[in-house]
Specification:
- The longest helix has about 35 residues.
- It is built from three helices and no strands.
- With about 80 residues, it is mainly alpha-helical.
Length: about 80
Amino acid sequence: MIAPANRTLQTCGQIHQLPQDMGEYLRFVHDCNRERNLRLRAQLLEAVAALNRHDIVPLRLKGAAPFFFRRPAEFAAG
């Protein structure tokens, strides 16, 4: 719930109307989520590479799609 709310507030330009501590909290959660996504992407790419070395082509499942098709810089958007 926090990520969509944060994105909506940023898109509408209303994030600066929040109390300072709330804005800091949302930035903290956003940064943690971005770092988590980057780690997940790295692990996924490592697993795929290991499978490929043994001529195994993994299926791309719906939940993994953002980690395959987004660039790391795009994880800033959540």
